[in-house]
Amino acid sequence: MTYQETTPVTVGDLSFDVRMLGPQGGDPVVLLHGFPENSLSWTAVAARLVDAGLRVIAPDQRGYSPGARPTEVGAYATSTLAGDVIGLADALGLGTFHLVGHDWGAAVAWVVAAEHPERLRSLTAVSVPHLAAYGAALVDDPDQQQRAAYIGLLRQAGKAEDLLLEDGARRLRAMYGSTVSPAQVDSYVGPLSEPGALTAALSWYRAMQSDLGDLPSVIVPTTFVWSDQDLAIARIGAEQCGQYVDADYRFVELAGISHWIPEEAPDSLAEAILVRVSS
Predict the structure, then answer these.
(1) Reduced to 3 states, what is the DSSP secondary structure of residue 257?
(2) What CATH number did the domain enclosing 87 receive?
């Protein structure tokens, strides 16, 4: 089986498409993608982790898997998304596992770490810091406020879909900048252009509540990876992330790298993950 292939995994009445690779007996690491991507964003990172002997499990998350696409916005509450991760782990027989998340996947991973610390061996969060650090930056930092202005548009049902998909999804494609290859952009935009898919992905934004900023500190050994050319996440929240980790903590800053760390800097990200997993 190759990483390009997916396996259906049933959780409740939903069916998730999951990419799995590596030795069955390897330490399991679950990879959570962000928006607007899917589990193919981990292709290069997954190969490096498998080479190191890990068992990689990367789902297309709720809304991204056609079989896990409820229509109501409330079905995409962040705590529900975190519950999906535990449900997938249970379905795959994983007692404990390493968890990695990028962008929205990082937000979900922080909630998993806060609500289910007993299930995690380690956490590697990429781009998005602990949600309390991010929330504080949104309140106090004009730079972060400006960088997050796009969220208001994405929460506007109908308008956001029209703008992002019109003219051959020109604006959606532009979100990836010049650092994600055209072929990889196609692998994200194609599935998101299917009926209902982009609305489901945007429901993550529309369902989120301000109380995410009240997330308690995590007690899981954690690495946070942030890039200094990230257009969405300002430095202040990134630097304050460690204040919300009551466990071994490592902050990795990548210079000259955009928000799209898994695609642009897979070697550096895989190294950070492997250091954390082996700690």
Answers:
(1) coil
(2) 3.40.50.1820
Name the DSSP class of 176.
Answer: T
- Burial environment of residue 80 by CB neighbours within 10 A (0 to 12, 13 to 18, 19 or more): middle
CB 46 within 8 A of CB 72: no
Per-residue confidence at 1, pLDDT binned at 50, 70, 90? confident
Q: How far apart are CA 97 and CA 109, in angstroms?
A: 12
HSE of 88, CA atoms in CB hemisphere, 13 A: 31
Considering the domain boundaries, does residue 150 fall inside one? yes
- Please give the positions annotated as active site: 103, 205, 259
For 4-44, the pLDDT digits (tens) are: 899 999 999 999 999 999 999 999 999 999 999 999 999 99
The per-residue pLDDT for 272 is 98
* Secondary-structure percent of the chain, ordered helix, strand, coil, rounded to 5: 50, 20, 35
| Mean residue pLDDT across the chain | 97
Number of domains in the chain: 1
